[in-house]
Design goal:
The chain is an all-alpha fold. Helix content is 70%, strand content 0%. Helix 3 (67-103) runs parallel beside helix 6, helix 3 (67-103) runs parallel beside helix 7 (150-164) and helix 7 (150-164) runs antiparallel to helix 10 (193-216).
Length: 277
């Protein structure tokens, strides 16, 4: 019997994601300090619960910057990068997957060979190589992650289309003279929504981790922009002296990525029409 996610885990995941969206949208209001403000007199203050001051609940970093404010603004960057990248990769991948599966023949061969070529390169190496050439930048990292992540969408969409296009209701639509665009829009895409939601959830989580990884390496957003990956890089030299600098963004990444995966699985169960037959 198919197992369902416990309601508590789903509600917890949605609560974390809602908190991320709210804090990202209202970062300028909720953050107690300017994330770029330097106060050397307050450098390396511990969190309030570990002997610090409630003026800086999560402590400060080596430049006296408020860790809580940087975590809040870093969430805005992670959300912006991941959502935009998923929109780009999903549009490219689903479009190519539909063309590949529905048209077949030479079109299918060309698209799938392009996918095979891209899969031959490790993703992280591809990201690092492209970003090293282009240089850091918010728009650049969104574009790179979006363009590189299309393969999973295309391959899964192609498989779903191949299974659907020979079904009786598709043949009936063709017999009634429905145009190809209408068949794809009304019959193909709605019946592949579930798998695409699952892929999007994994891609969203992967985009957050990828942005953090590239920023950690100095290849993501510019140093002046607060980012969870940049905070991890700044805190790696202070793990024994000021562990909170890297711990706060690390916990944020862990909870957000876990919540995205749980929410994606729940949405698949709710929206996939095949699960309600």
């Amino acid at each position: 019997m198919r197992r369902h996610l416990p309601p508590a885990s789903v509600l917890g995941a949605l609560a974390v994601l809602a908190l991320l969206v709210v804090t990202a949208a209202l970062a300028g209001v909720l953050a107690p300090y300017n994330p770029a403000a330097v106060a050397l007199g307050d450098r390396l203050l511990p969190p309030a619960l570990f002997g610090g001051t409630w003026r800086h609940p999560l402590g400060t970093d080596a430049l006296g910057q408020d860790v809580l404010s940087r975590v809040i603004f870093g969430g805005r960057i992670s959300l912006l990068v991941s959502v935009c990248a998923v929109a780009i990769s999903g549009t490219i991948g689903v479009g190519l997957g539909v063309l590949s599966g529905f048209l077949g023949g030479a079109v299918d061969d060309v698209i799938m060979r392009l996918a095979d070529i891209q899969l031959a390169f490790p993703s992280i190496i591809l990201y690092i190589g492209v970003m090293a050439v282009l240089g850091p930048g918010l728009g650049k990292i969104i574009l790179v992650i979006g363009v590189v992540s299309w393969v999973a969408y295309a391959r899964i969409e192609r498989g779903a289309v191949l299974a659907l296009k020979e079904r009786e209701f598709i043949e009936a639509a063709r017999a009634l003279g429905a145009p190809t665009v209408s068949i794809v829009r009304r019959h193909i895409l709605p019946n592949t929504l579930g798998p695409m939601i699952v892929v999007a959830s994994f891609t969203l989580a992967a985009a957050i981790v990828t942005e953090a990884s590239l920023s950690f390496l100095g290849l993501g957003v510019p140093p002046s922009v607060p980012s969870w990956g940049r905070m991890l890089a700044d805190g790696r030299d202070y793990l024994q002296q000021a562990w909170w600098i890297a711990t706060a963004p690390g916990i944020a990444i862990m909870f957000v990525v876990l919540s995205v995966n749980v929410a994606g699985d729940w949405l698949r169960d709710r929206l996939d029409p095949r699960l309600h037959l």
